[in-house]
Queue: 4 jobs
Job 1
Amino acid sequence: MSSEHYTPPVNPLPPVVIALVLFILGIELAFTLGSRGIVGGPSAVGWRLEAIQLYSFSPDIFNWMIENGRWPVEHVIRFITYPFVSGSFTQAIFVCVFVLAMGKMVGEVFGGFPMLIIFVLSGVGGALAYALLLDPRHPLIGGFPPVYGLIGAFTWLLWRKLSLVGENQARAFQLIAVLMAIQLLFGLIFGGTSDWVADLGGFATGFALSFFLAPGAWERIVERIRRD
C-alpha cells in the first residue's frame, strides 16, 4: 500500500493544543510532585500557594489598579497566567480533557493561532466578568474560563451551521445550557463558588471572537459593510 494514499484513522491534534495541554500538565505535575517532596526539596511543598499568590487573578489587585490608574506588568500578566495555575490535580486533568476535545474541533476549523487567541482572550474576558459583575473575595485560578471560550467558539460553529441549513439556531446553545445547569446544581449541593460567572464570561468572549476569527470572517464583514 502506498503511503501517499494513507489516511490516519484519527486526525492529528493541532500542535497548539498539544502545547497547551503539556504546559498545563507540566505545571501541575511540578506542584503535585513538589507537595509530596519528590522534587524541589522542602520549599517545593508551597509551590502551589506561591503560584496562586503571584499568578492568580486577584479582584482586589484589579480594583487597586483601576482606582490608582496604575497597571504594573506583574499584575496585568495575571489575566493570562491564572488559567495555568490549577487548584488541584483533578481540576488540571478536567481542563486538559476539555482543551483536547474543544481545542481539536475549534483548531481544525479556525486554525491553531486563532484558536490560541480565543483561549487567551476568553481567559481575559472571564476574569473581567468575574471582577466587574461580582464582588469576589477569593482569587480566580484554573483553566475553565478559557475552556468555556473554546466551547463558545464551538457553539458559534454549530450556530452558523444551523443558520446555513435553515434550522433553529437556539439548538446550538444546548451544550452550554447543560454545562451551566450541571455547574449550578453542583454549586447548590456542595456549596460551590461563583466562578461560573467567569466561565460564562469566557463563553461569551469566545462566541463573540468567532465572528472575527472564523475562516472568511473578515471577508463577510467587509462585504456586509459594502452592502450597507
Job 2
Amino acid sequence: MKNQSAEPSLSWWHLSLIGAGGTVGTGYFLGTGIALKSSSWFTIPAFLIAAFATWIVYKRLAMMTMADPCEGSFCTYAGKAYGRWAAFLCGWIYWISTVLIMGGQLTALGILSRYWFPSIPLWVFTLIFAVLSITVVLLGARGFDIAEDFFSVIKLSALVIFLFIGASLLSGGRNHFHLNGSMPFDEGFNRMRTSLIFAFYSFAGIEVIGLMASRLTETKDIFKSGRALILCLGSLYVLALWVTMKLQAPTHFSSEESPFISVLNRGHVPIVASCFNGVILIAGFSALAAALFSVTRLLRSMADEGEAPRIFKRKWKRDIPLPSLCLSVAGMGIAIIASHLLPGIIFEAFITAAGILLLCNWAFILLSSFKLLDRDVRRNGVSLFALAILVLAISGTFTLKESRYGFYLSMVLLVLISLASLLFNYKSSRRLAKS
C-alpha cells in the first residue's frame, strides 16, 4: 500500500533511524545505572526479555497497521476494539507518559550537563534544552527527519565506539567484576524483575514507528523497520551492559552519573569520557525532540477523532499543530519546575511513572490485537506471554525504593485518566442518545 500522507514519505531504513532517534536516550545511558546497581548482572536477562516482549508488542501493532493504516495508530485501534472510551484512555495515557518521558529526559540532560558545569542550577539546563527541542519541532516534518537522522547515527556510533573502548580495556586486564553464581534463584528473579522497567524504558519510543507508519512508501515495510531497529538496539544494549559490568562493580553505579561515563573515568580515559558525555547529551536531546514531535501529532489526531478538544486540530506553518505543541510545552514547564523543587528523586520518579504508563499502553495494543486480528492460537498465546511480562515489570517497580515514588505517581495518574475516560464515555453516550 502506498503512502497517502501529505508529509514526506519514508523508506523502511529511514523510519528505523527515526525510531532509533526516539528510542535511544538518557533512559538507557543514565537510567540503567539504577538497574545495574540494584540488579547487577541480572540486568542483562531483563534486557533480553524486554527486547522479546517489545518485538511482540511491535509486531502486533504492525499487523494492525498493515490491515488498517491510520494516523492515530494504537489509539485508533483501541477505539475500534473496545469503543471510543478506550481510544480516549489510550491517547491520554500516551500523552501523559510522553510528557513524563520528556520531563525525565530534561532532568537527565541537566544532570549530564552539570558534569562540566557543576555550579549551575539544574533548572537552567532543563530550560535551555526545552527551548532547543521546541525549535527542532518548529522546523516541521522534513527538518525533524533530517535532524533525527543525524542524531541517530551519532547515538548508534557512540554505542559501537564504547564497545571498542571497553574491549580494549578488557584486553588490557581491567576486569574488575566477576559474576556471582551462588545467588538463590528467588533473589535473582526478584533482581531481574526490578530492572525490567528500566529495560523497557530503554525501548520507549518504539511506538513512534507505528505513529509514523502512514508515511512509509510501502506500508508492508513496517515489519522490516521494527525488526532491524529492535535487533540492532537489543544487541548493542546487551553488549554495552556486559562490557560495563565486566569493567566495574555495580556498587559504583548511581542515577547521578551515566554508568558508561563512570567506567571511562575509572579506566583513566577522562577525555573520552567527556566526549562520550556530549554524545549522551545529543542522545537525550534527540529522544526529547522525537517525543515532543510525536505527542503533538497524536494530540492532533485525537482532536480529529473527538477525543481531545477541537482547538488541537489547528495547524500552523509547515503543518505544525501549534495548540498541541503549546500544551506539550506546558507539560515540559511543569517538569522543569519539578526538577527544581525535587532534584533528588524526580528523575527516578519520572522514568518509572512514564515506564508504567507506557506498558499500560503496550498492554492495550496487545488487547486490541486480540479483537481486531485473526484468532490464531499460537500468536495469541505468545501475546498473552508478552502481556504477562508487562505485568511482571510493573509489579517490580513497587519493590525497589528508587522507583516506588514513580509507582505511586503512575497509579494516581491512571486513576485520574480513567475517571476522565468514564466522564468522556458518559457524555458521548448522552450526545448519541440526543441525536
Job 3
Amino acid sequence: MSARILSGQPAAERIRADVGRQVEELTQLGREATLAIVTANDDESSSWYVRSLVSSAAKLGVNAAVHDLGPCAGEVTIRATLERLSTDHAVHGIILQTPLPGGIDLGDVARAISPEKDVDGANPVSLGLLAAGLQAFAPATAEAVMTLLDEYQIDVEGREAVIVGRSAVVGKPLFHLLLNKNATITVCHSRSSNLQDVTRRADVVVAAVGKARLLTSEHVAPGAVVIDVGTNADPKEGLVGDVDANDVGPLAAALSPVPGGVGAVTTSLLLLHTTSAALRAQGQNFTPAGIGS
C-alpha cells in the first residue's frame, strides 16, 4: 500500500481566488485589507511560517504588518499591543503567533483581541462561539484540516478520529469541527498513556503536537487517513512534520505532506478571514465557495 498524498494546493488555490475577489471588492470601496501579525519569539519554525504568510499576503494584495515584540516581551506589552491593534480601524485581522515567552498563557493575552478581528480564533470567546455553533472565525489550522478532508471527499461521519495534541489553536477547536461532522473523537496529549493503542484504532489520525516525526507506523492502522499538522524546523531537512512520512506512507491510505499540505490551506484561510473581516467592517457580506466547516 502506498498512501495517497493529500496536497493542500488545490484547495489553497480556490481559497486564494476567493481572497482575490474580496480584494477587488475592497479596492472598489477604496479600502485595503490589513492583517497584523504579532510575534514574541525567536523560534525558527514560527519565523518560517510568518515569512510565508507575509509573502502570500503580498501576492494577493493584502497588507500584512509584522509587529515583532521580541522573545523577552512581557504579558503587559503583548496585551497592550493587541488592545491597540483591536481599536485601530485600519487593522482588520489580528493573529498572535506562538510560541509565546515562558509563563505567558495564550488564552489570557488573546482576550485582548477583538472577536471581530480574531481571524485565527485565539480569543477564548471565539472558541466558545465555535463550540456553540455560532458565527466566529475558527482557528485557521483547525479549519484547514477540515478543508483538506472535504477536498478529498473523506467523510468522517460515524468514523473514529484521534487528535494528537490538545492546543487551543488546533486540538480543541478541531474537536468541535469534527464533532459537527458527526465523527467519534478522542483527543490525546502529553499525559495520555498507551498512545499507540489509541491511534492504531482510528480511521483518521491528526498529528498536532509540534514534535518532529513523533508518529510512526506503530501508531497507524493499515488504511488510516493521516493528517500532519506539524511544522518543525530540522537543520538538515528543513521543514518536517509530526509524522514520519517515510515510515507511515506505505501503511496509510492517505497522508498530508509537510510542507504542502495543511500549511498551504492555513495561510490561505487566514487571508480569507482577513478580507472577510475587512468587508464586514464596510457593511458588506461575502460567502466564499469551497471552504470546509
Job 4
Amino acid sequence: MSEAVDKYPSRAGRAPCLEPRLDPVVYASAPQQLLPYLSPEQVAQYERDGYLVLHDVFSGEEVQCFKDELERLRKDASLAGNDEVISEPGSGDIRSIFRVHRISPVFKRLASDVRLAGIAQGLLDDEVYIHQSRLNYKPGFRGKEFFWHSDFETWHVEDGMPAMRALSMSITLTENTHNNGSLMLIPGSHKAYAVCTGETPANHFRASLKKQEYGVPEDGLLEQLAKHNGIVSAAAKPGSVIIFDCNTMHGSNSNITPDPRSNAFFVYNAISNRVVQPFCDQSPRPEYITTREHVETIKLQRSDSESYRCELQAV
C-alpha cells in the first residue's frame, strides 16, 4: 500500500483535543443528485447533524426475512469458534457477527439494495464498497454497552482510512427503544475530530470488539460536545435505517430489558478512500474487520421481500 499523509493524527502521545474536520460531509455537489433517495431537506439535516433516521424503509415481510437469517446465523454450528463471531464478555452470548455481507447471501443482497447503497453513493459522490459489515445482537438482560466513540478515529488509526468519506447504516431488525439500548448520537459532533490519548496495543482488535479502551475520547471532550450539541436517542421501529457519518460521536447503553436489540450494520466507504497502511505502528486488522484485499465495488440492486425470501430459501 502507498504511504498517505496523516491528516488526523491521534493517540501516539498526543494530548486530547478537538480539531476541525478537514473533509466535506456531503460530497454531492447538489442535493438534487440524491433524488429520489433523499429530499434536499434530509440532505441538509444530514450535513448539519451528522445523522439521519429513515422510517419504514423495509416492509414487514422483508424484515422477517432478515430476522430469519439473523436467527439462522446465530444457531449455525459451522460459525462457532470463528473469528467473525464476537461474544459478550461474561455471558458468552453472541454480541456481533462480522463480514455478514460475505457470509450470508441475504445480507449480501441487503448491502447492495438501492435503498441503502444508492444513498451512500449519492452522499459520498463515488462508487462504494463495504468497509465493514456485522450483525449486532445486543441480547436481552445481558447485552453490554458500546461506549462513546467516533468510528473514523479507529478506522483511520488502526485501518488506514485516509479521509472522512465513509458512512454507516444501521438497519433495525427489532424495535429499538430508549430502554433496550438504542443508538445514541451527539448531533453536530462530526464537525470536530476528537484526538484520543494512549498508544495502540498490538492486536488491539481482540479486546476492543468486546470492550473498547483505546480510541475512546476523554470525558472532558465528550462533555464539551454533549453540552454544545445535546444527545439524541435513535429509537425506531423495525425496518428503519439510521444513517450516520463516519465521524459522528455515538454509543449505546447496555440492555437489561427482556427485549433484544438486533440491527444489521454496513459501513460504506468511497472507492477513492480505500484503506492504506494503518496510521499507527501496528499491523493491519484482519480482513473480516476491515476490507482491504477483497474490495468489490457495489452494484446496485432493486430488491423486495420475494427476492430476499429466495435468497433465504437457497441457503
